[in-house]
Amino acid sequence: MQQLMCTGKQQLEWQDAPAPVLDDPRAAIVRPLAVATCDLDVAMLSGRAPVPMPFAFGHECVAEVTEVGADVTSVVPGDRVSLSFQFSCGECEPCKRGHTGSCREYGAGSAYGLGAMGRNHAGVLADFTLVPSADHMMVKLPAGVAAETAASASDNIPDAWRTVAPPLAERPGAEVLIVGGGAEGIPMYAIDIALALGASRVDYVDTDRRRIDLAASLGANVIDSAPPRRVGSYPITVDASGEVAGLHCAIRSTEPEGVCTSIGIYFAETTPLPLLEMYTRGITFKTGRVHARAAMPAVLDLI
User: Fold this and answer.
1) Which site among 136, 170, 174, 218 is 20 to 30 Å from 190 CA-CA?
2) Are 164 and 235 in contact (CB under 8 A)?
Protein backbone atom coordinates (compact mmCIF):
# COMPACT_ATOMS: atom_id res chain seq x y z
CA MET A 1 0.00 0.00 0.00
CA GLN A 2 0.96 3.68 -0.12
CA GLN A 3 1.75 5.89 2.91
CA LEU A 4 2.44 9.63 2.73
CA MET A 5 5.77 10.43 4.37
CA CYS A 6 7.28 13.72 5.48
CA THR A 7 10.85 13.35 4.23
CA GLY A 8 12.17 16.86 4.91
CA LYS A 9 11.16 20.47 5.44
CA GLN A 10 8.13 21.13 3.19
CA GLN A 11 8.68 17.76 1.50
CA LEU A 12 6.05 15.02 1.27
CA GLU A 13 6.13 11.89 -0.85
CA TRP A 14 4.14 8.70 -1.25
CA GLN A 15 6.11 5.59 -0.35
CA ASP A 16 5.38 1.88 -0.29
CA ALA A 17 4.54 0.53 3.16
CA PRO A 18 3.40 -2.84 4.52
CA ALA A 19 -0.37 -3.20 4.62
CA PRO A 20 -1.74 -3.52 8.18
CA VAL A 21 -2.55 -7.01 9.43
CA LEU A 22 -5.50 -7.72 11.73
CA ASP A 23 -3.75 -9.76 14.43
CA ASP A 24 -5.67 -8.62 17.53
CA PRO A 25 -9.35 -9.47 18.17
CA ARG A 26 -9.87 -5.94 19.60
CA ALA A 27 -8.55 -4.22 16.47
CA ALA A 28 -9.97 -3.09 13.16
CA ILE A 29 -8.67 -1.93 9.79
CA VAL A 30 -10.06 1.22 8.20
CA ARG A 31 -9.76 3.04 4.89
CA PRO A 32 -9.34 6.79 5.43
CA LEU A 33 -11.92 8.81 3.47
CA ALA A 34 -11.18 12.41 4.44
CA VAL A 35 -7.99 13.55 6.17
CA ALA A 36 -7.63 17.07 7.58
CA THR A 37 -4.46 19.11 7.93
CA CYS A 38 -3.96 19.78 11.63
CA ASP A 39 -2.34 22.97 12.92
CA LEU A 40 0.48 20.79 14.24
CA ASP A 41 0.94 19.23 10.77
CA VAL A 42 1.69 22.69 9.43
CA ALA A 43 4.24 23.33 12.18
CA MET A 44 5.96 19.98 11.63
CA LEU A 45 6.05 20.35 7.85
CA SER A 46 7.50 23.87 8.09
CA GLY A 47 10.17 22.75 10.54
CA ARG A 48 8.85 24.84 13.44
CA ALA A 49 8.13 21.69 15.45
CA PRO A 50 11.32 19.73 16.17
CA VAL A 51 10.24 16.30 14.90
CA PRO A 52 12.95 14.10 13.34
CA MET A 53 12.29 13.21 9.71
CA PRO A 54 11.21 11.09 7.92
CA PHE A 55 7.92 10.21 9.57
CA ALA A 56 4.47 9.01 8.49
CA PHE A 57 2.12 11.96 7.94
CA GLY A 58 -1.53 12.63 8.78
CA HIS A 59 -3.42 12.01 12.01
CA GLU A 60 -7.03 13.25 11.93
CA CYS A 61 -9.62 11.64 9.70
CA VAL A 62 -12.96 10.10 8.96
CA ALA A 63 -12.59 6.52 7.72
CA GLU A 64 -14.60 3.54 6.48
CA VAL A 65 -14.29 0.32 8.45
CA THR A 66 -13.09 -2.51 6.19
CA GLU A 67 -12.31 -5.33 8.64
CA VAL A 68 -12.94 -5.96 12.35
CA GLY A 69 -11.54 -8.34 14.94
CA ALA A 70 -13.65 -10.99 16.62
CA ASP A 71 -14.13 -8.96 19.81
CA VAL A 72 -15.18 -5.71 18.12
CA THR A 73 -18.89 -5.03 18.66
CA SER A 74 -19.50 -1.31 18.06
CA VAL A 75 -18.80 -1.15 14.32
CA VAL A 76 -19.06 -3.36 11.26
CA PRO A 77 -17.40 -3.16 7.84
CA GLY A 78 -18.89 -0.30 5.87
CA ASP A 79 -19.46 2.01 8.86
CA ARG A 80 -18.05 5.53 8.62
CA VAL A 81 -16.21 6.56 11.76
CA SER A 82 -14.31 9.43 13.30
CA LEU A 83 -10.97 7.97 14.34
CA SER A 84 -9.30 9.39 17.44
CA PHE A 85 -5.82 10.57 16.53
CA GLN A 86 -4.57 9.46 19.95
CA PHE A 87 -4.20 5.82 20.93
CA SER A 88 -6.26 4.94 23.98
CA CYS A 89 -7.75 1.76 25.44
CA GLY A 90 -10.79 3.12 27.29
CA GLU A 91 -10.18 0.74 30.18
CA CYS A 92 -7.25 2.07 32.19
CA GLU A 93 -7.63 4.60 35.02
CA PRO A 94 -6.58 7.67 32.98
CA CYS A 95 -8.98 6.74 30.16
CA LYS A 96 -11.86 6.23 32.58
CA ARG A 97 -11.19 9.71 34.00
CA GLY A 98 -11.42 11.11 30.47
CA HIS A 99 -7.65 11.60 30.15
CA THR A 100 -7.49 9.62 26.92
CA GLY A 101 -4.34 11.39 25.73
CA SER A 102 -2.47 9.80 28.63
CA CYS A 103 -3.59 6.19 28.19
CA ARG A 104 -1.63 3.81 30.38
CA GLU A 105 -1.78 0.89 27.92
CA TYR A 106 -0.43 2.72 24.88
CA GLY A 107 1.59 5.40 26.64
CA ALA A 108 0.97 9.12 27.04
CA GLY A 109 1.17 10.96 23.74
CA SER A 110 0.77 7.92 21.46
CA ALA A 111 -0.77 9.13 18.23
CA TYR A 112 -0.98 8.61 14.51
CA GLY A 113 1.29 10.56 12.20
CA LEU A 114 3.34 12.60 14.69
CA GLY A 115 6.66 10.82 14.36
CA ALA A 116 8.72 10.60 17.53
CA MET A 117 6.33 13.06 19.21
CA GLY A 118 3.60 10.41 18.91
CA ARG A 119 5.75 7.33 19.57
CA ASN A 120 6.39 6.67 15.86
CA HIS A 121 3.05 5.21 14.84
CA ALA A 122 1.77 5.05 11.25
CA GLY A 123 -0.10 7.96 9.70
CA VAL A 124 -3.66 8.10 8.38
CA LEU A 125 -2.67 9.50 4.98
CA ALA A 126 -2.43 5.91 3.78
CA ASP A 127 -4.52 3.39 1.88
CA PHE A 128 -5.36 1.54 5.11
CA THR A 129 -4.81 2.07 8.83
CA LEU A 130 -4.82 -0.33 11.78
CA VAL A 131 -6.93 0.72 14.79
CA PRO A 132 -6.14 -0.99 18.10
CA SER A 133 -8.88 -0.93 20.77
CA ALA A 134 -11.30 -0.24 17.94
CA ASP A 135 -14.47 -0.16 20.06
CA HIS A 136 -13.02 2.74 22.04
CA MET A 137 -10.96 4.66 19.48
CA MET A 138 -13.70 5.02 16.85
CA VAL A 139 -17.01 6.89 17.04
CA LYS A 140 -19.63 6.35 14.36
CA LEU A 141 -20.26 9.36 12.15
CA PRO A 142 -23.84 10.63 12.47
CA ALA A 143 -26.04 9.98 9.45
CA GLY A 144 -26.05 12.82 6.96
CA VAL A 145 -22.70 14.28 8.03
CA ALA A 146 -20.20 14.46 5.17
CA ALA A 147 -16.79 12.90 5.79
CA GLU A 148 -14.96 16.14 5.00
CA THR A 149 -17.18 18.09 7.41
CA ALA A 150 -16.06 15.94 10.34
CA ALA A 151 -12.47 15.23 9.25
CA SER A 152 -11.10 17.30 12.16
CA ALA A 153 -13.52 15.90 14.74
CA SER A 154 -10.76 13.66 16.07
CA ASP A 155 -8.28 16.42 17.00
CA ASN A 156 -8.54 20.10 16.04
CA ILE A 157 -12.24 20.49 16.80
CA PRO A 158 -11.98 18.77 20.22
CA ASP A 159 -8.93 20.93 20.91
CA ALA A 160 -11.04 24.03 20.26
CA TRP A 161 -14.07 22.61 22.10
CA ARG A 162 -12.14 22.10 25.35
CA THR A 163 -11.05 25.76 25.41
CA VAL A 164 -14.59 27.18 25.47
CA ALA A 165 -17.27 24.54 26.08
CA PRO A 166 -16.50 23.53 29.70
CA PRO A 167 -16.02 27.14 30.92
CA LEU A 168 -19.17 28.26 29.07
CA ALA A 169 -21.09 25.46 30.80
CA GLU A 170 -20.03 27.07 34.12
CA ARG A 171 -20.51 30.66 32.93
CA PRO A 172 -23.38 30.63 30.36
CA GLY A 173 -23.30 33.60 28.01
CA ALA A 174 -19.80 34.69 29.05
CA GLU A 175 -17.61 36.82 26.80
CA VAL A 176 -14.62 35.09 25.22
CA LEU A 177 -11.24 36.41 24.04
CA ILE A 178 -9.14 34.42 21.55
CA VAL A 179 -5.60 35.55 20.77
CA GLY A 180 -4.56 34.19 17.38
CA GLY A 181 -1.39 34.31 15.34
CA GLY A 182 -0.05 30.77 15.60
CA ALA A 183 -2.56 27.99 15.10
CA GLU A 184 -4.68 28.37 11.98
CA GLY A 185 -7.72 26.17 12.50
CA ILE A 186 -8.25 25.73 16.23
CA PRO A 187 -9.06 29.38 17.02
CA MET A 188 -11.62 29.44 14.17
CA TYR A 189 -13.31 26.33 15.53
CA ALA A 190 -13.25 27.91 19.00
CA ILE A 191 -15.04 31.01 17.66
CA ASP A 192 -17.70 28.90 15.98
CA ILE A 193 -18.21 26.63 18.99
CA ALA A 194 -18.30 29.47 21.54
CA LEU A 195 -21.01 31.31 19.59
CA ALA A 196 -22.96 28.10 19.00
CA LEU A 197 -22.91 27.47 22.75
CA GLY A 198 -24.23 30.92 23.60
CA ALA A 199 -21.20 33.12 24.24
CA SER A 200 -22.46 36.72 24.29
CA ARG A 201 -19.37 37.95 22.44
CA VAL A 202 -16.16 36.55 21.00
CA ASP A 203 -13.24 38.93 20.42
CA TYR A 204 -10.40 37.76 18.18
CA VAL A 205 -6.92 39.36 18.13
CA ASP A 206 -4.69 38.90 15.06
CA THR A 207 -2.95 40.76 12.23
CA ASP A 208 -3.24 38.19 9.43
CA ARG A 209 -5.83 39.43 6.94
CA ARG A 210 -7.00 35.97 5.84
CA ARG A 211 -7.56 34.79 9.41
CA ILE A 212 -9.17 38.08 10.39
CA ASP A 213 -11.64 37.87 7.52
CA LEU A 214 -12.51 34.28 8.37
CA ALA A 215 -12.97 35.11 12.06
CA ALA A 216 -15.26 38.00 11.15
CA SER A 217 -17.30 35.77 8.83
CA LEU A 218 -17.83 33.37 11.74
CA GLY A 219 -19.22 36.17 13.90
CA ALA A 220 -16.20 37.26 15.94
CA ASN A 221 -15.48 40.87 16.79
CA VAL A 222 -12.04 41.36 15.23
CA ILE A 223 -9.23 43.32 16.87
CA ASP A 224 -6.69 43.95 14.09
CA SER A 225 -3.56 44.33 16.19
CA ALA A 226 -0.50 42.60 17.48
CA PRO A 227 -1.30 41.27 20.96
CA PRO A 228 -1.32 44.24 23.34
CA ARG A 229 -0.36 43.91 26.97
CA ARG A 230 -4.05 43.55 27.87
CA VAL A 231 -7.27 43.71 25.82
CA GLY A 232 -9.82 43.87 28.63
CA SER A 233 -11.28 41.56 31.26
CA TYR A 234 -12.86 38.28 30.10
CA PRO A 235 -14.18 35.26 32.00
CA ILE A 236 -12.79 32.97 29.26
CA THR A 237 -9.59 33.51 27.29
CA VAL A 238 -7.73 31.38 24.77
CA ASP A 239 -4.09 31.62 23.71
CA ALA A 240 -3.64 30.31 20.15
CA SER A 241 -0.70 32.57 19.36
CA GLY A 242 2.30 30.35 19.98
CA GLU A 243 4.17 33.49 21.04
CA VAL A 244 5.06 34.84 24.47
CA ALA A 245 3.40 38.21 23.79
CA GLY A 246 0.13 36.52 22.83
CA LEU A 247 0.30 34.15 25.79
CA HIS A 248 0.82 37.07 28.19
CA CYS A 249 -1.99 39.06 26.55
CA ALA A 250 -4.45 36.19 27.06
CA ILE A 251 -3.38 35.67 30.67
CA ARG A 252 -3.50 39.38 31.55
CA SER A 253 -6.91 39.71 29.89
CA THR A 254 -8.42 36.98 32.08
CA GLU A 255 -10.70 38.39 34.77
CA PRO A 256 -10.30 37.43 38.45
CA GLU A 257 -11.18 33.73 38.87
CA GLY A 258 -11.49 33.38 35.08
CA VAL A 259 -10.10 30.58 32.91
CA CYS A 260 -7.29 30.90 30.36
CA THR A 261 -6.48 27.93 28.12
CA SER A 262 -3.38 27.82 25.93
CA ILE A 263 -3.37 25.43 22.98
CA GLY A 264 0.04 26.75 21.89
CA ILE A 265 3.01 24.39 21.98
CA TYR A 266 6.02 26.30 23.31
CA PHE A 267 9.09 24.32 22.26
CA ALA A 268 11.58 26.49 24.18
CA GLU A 269 12.91 24.90 27.37
CA THR A 270 11.59 27.84 29.40
CA THR A 271 8.73 30.25 28.72
CA PRO A 272 8.18 33.23 31.02
CA LEU A 273 4.79 33.68 32.69
CA PRO A 274 3.35 36.71 34.55
CA LEU A 275 2.87 34.63 37.68
CA LEU A 276 2.35 37.52 40.07
CA GLU A 277 -0.59 38.83 38.05
CA MET A 278 -1.99 35.31 37.74
CA TYR A 279 -1.68 34.89 41.50
CA THR A 280 -3.24 38.22 42.47
CA ARG A 281 -6.28 37.58 40.27
CA GLY A 282 -6.55 33.88 41.04
CA ILE A 283 -7.02 32.75 37.45
CA THR A 284 -7.07 29.14 36.30
CA PHE A 285 -4.47 28.48 33.58
CA LYS A 286 -4.70 25.34 31.50
CA THR A 287 -2.15 23.95 29.06
CA GLY A 288 -1.44 20.50 27.65
CA ARG A 289 -2.53 18.00 25.05
CA VAL A 290 -6.21 17.68 24.27
CA HIS A 291 -7.89 14.44 25.43
CA ALA A 292 -9.57 14.09 22.07
CA ARG A 293 -11.52 10.84 22.42
CA ALA A 294 -13.31 12.07 25.54
CA ALA A 295 -14.59 15.15 23.66
CA MET A 296 -15.48 13.52 20.32
CA PRO A 297 -19.10 12.57 21.14
CA ALA A 298 -19.93 16.16 22.19
CA VAL A 299 -18.18 17.51 19.08
CA LEU A 300 -20.10 15.17 16.77
CA ASP A 301 -23.37 16.12 18.48
CA LEU A 302 -22.62 19.79 17.77
CA ILE A 303 -21.83 19.04 14.13
Assistant:
1) 136
2) no
